[in-house]
Specification:
alpha+beta; Alpha-D-Glucose-1,6-Bisphosphate, Chain A, domain 4; seven-stranded antiparallel sheet; 3 helices
């Protein structure tokens, strides 16, 4: 079954530059996204409960956008974080894009919601 791309947006009370650090810096990623994280400008290794997942950074625009591709992932699939200011409210928006099977999208969105709540807590924006 083909997996589908989905996108969620979250309002985050943070400056775009600080928020960008939390979606790209290994030290900050371990505070909300994974148990462990290590990497450099083009490659990152995430750890959860003893398992490791490797990802390449395939696109990067400072303070605006980062796209990761899982090493073992399907070609053309990715997860990404886009950060921008709302033109209407001027609030910082974090747009998360990921892929999942149709029947799993709701569960995956709930997982992202939980992760983003943890991110907000780390930022003091909860």
């Amino acid at each position: 079954m083909a997996r589908k791309k989905y996108t969620n947006e979250y309002i985050i009370r943070s400056s775009p530059s600080i928020l960008f650090e939390f979606v790209t810096d290994p030290t900050k990623l371990t505070q909300w996204f994974s148990d462990t994280c290590d990497g450099n400008d083009s490659h990152i290794v995430f750890g959860w409960g003893g398992s490791r997942e490797e990802a390449d950074i395939v696109e990067y625009i400072e303070d605006e956008f980062v796209k990761y591709h899982w090493k073992d992932g399907t070609k053309g699939e990715f997860f990404s974080f886009r950060i921008y200011k709302s033109e209407i409210s001027f609030e910082t928006v974090l747009e998360v894009t990921d892929f999942a099977e149709d029947r799993e999208i709701k569960d995956q969105i709930r997982l992202w919601d939980s992760q983003i709540d943890q991110l907000k807590h780390c930022l003091g924006a909860a």
